Amino acid sequence: MPLILALASIAYAPGLHGRFLFDDFANLSSLGNSGPIDDWPTFWRYITSGTADPTGRPLTLLTFLLDAHNWPADPFPFKRTSLILHLLNGSLLYALLARLGRLLSHGDRQSQTAALLGTALWLLHPLLVSTTLYIVQREAMLPATCTLAGLLLWLHGRHLLIQGKIAAGLTWSVLGLGGFTVLGVLAKANGVLLPIFALLIEALVLAPRHPMQHGGARQAYRLALLAFGVVPSAAILGYLFWTGIKGVLAGGPIGFRPWSVGQRLLTEPRVLLDYLQLLWLPRPFSSGLFNDQYVASTSWLQPATTLPAMLTALGLIGLAWWQRRRYPALALAILFYFAGQLLESTSIPLELYFEHRNYLPAFLMFWPLGLWLADVRSLRLFKYALMLVLPLGLAWMTHARAELWGNVHSQALLWAKINPDSARAQTNAAQIEMQAGQPQAAIRRLEKLLATQPSQVQLAFNLIGARCMTGGITAADLDAAQLAMRGTPNTGTLFANWFERTLPVAISGGCPGLNAQSLQKLIYTGLENPKLSAAGPRQDLTYMRGKIALAQSQPNAALADFTRALDLQVRPGMALEAAATLGRAGYPSYGLHLLDHYEAVSGKVMKPGFGMPWLHTWVLERQHYWPHELDHLRNQLTLDAKASSVNTSSHSLRPGVPH
Question: Is 0.70 topped by the overall pTM?
Answer without folding.
Answer: yes
